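Target chain:
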Amino acid sequence: MTTIVRSFLALMLLVLVGGCASSSNQIANAQTTELLYVCNQGAATVSVIDSRTLEIVKTIDLQEMGYTANAKPHHIAVLEDGTWFLSLIGDNKILKFNRDDEVVAEIEYEVPGMLILNPEKDQILVGRSMSAVNPPRRIGFIDPTAATVEEVETFYPRPHALNIHPSGNTAYSASLAQNSLGAFSTEDGEMELYNSDGKPLVFVQFVVSPDGKTLVGTSQGRSQLIFFDVTDEDNPVMTDSIMVKGAPWHPLFSADGKYIYFGNKMGNAVTVVDAVSKTIVKEIQGEGISEPHGSSLSPDGKRLFISNNNLKGGYTPQAGGDATKVGTVVVIDTESLEIEKVIEVGANTTGLSPIVKLP
């Protein structure tokens, strides 16, 4: 009996110790999350990907929540507490979700496009969709706590490209229809307007270097990457440009500011540019890269995520069927610049959220 009791106690101790270790590991793993939110514009869904395991952990169906099949989720901003905002082009709304992916507020906004989180203020900037032919000539400043929006005039048509200086004090927007760029105060919405001549720029998107000295824009009209000096952040000065493959889309700087990454929608490529020498390091092509659109980097900078519309069916899904109904997120190793994985998601994959570490 004594031997049995001792064996039983030893077994229980082993189970308890093992259980505690297992629980501790689970708790440790649960302490932070690194989720990537993916807009499937043609499917009215949002895919949620664990950026560490590269697995889809959840699919949010907007139709099940009462939104239309034509909701067209386009872009996402994520706050540090896990609250996130989603623009719906087709339903003319911006949705606020809590960390449990429940809608907690709606903002009426005509054809919303890009959503950019102010890095220094409780504020989100919102523009207009590229698909809108004649949207209001205004951009919006969202109060994420109150879920309200205040609009300011741009005075130029079709404001689309959008970003905020790392200081949090100046926002940049540009027109799709004419060569106009606005530098806005994020405090009161006052704007300085800059115009340029020549062939239409058609800026798709902006990004500002981590040191706040350089604004970079992707020009669909000229198939160029265009550089501005924003040392004086309210006064962008065009300094340089380089030719790239057709239709450069959403650009990103690496955290150290050495490289710029972006997809080329008409070139079915992902381009890596040396930000100092302003030369192309590599044009990445391969499986899954089919009309690349959005971009996001893992918090450690080791993985680049690129969304792909695949509306022309350049990528063939593993299960076959209608290729145009399957978009992809391509994962690229930023050291080797090789494709690590292709993740299949919903139709016409567009905007990607930034990936933030959440407790």
The chain is about 10% helix and 45% strand. The helical segments are 2-31.
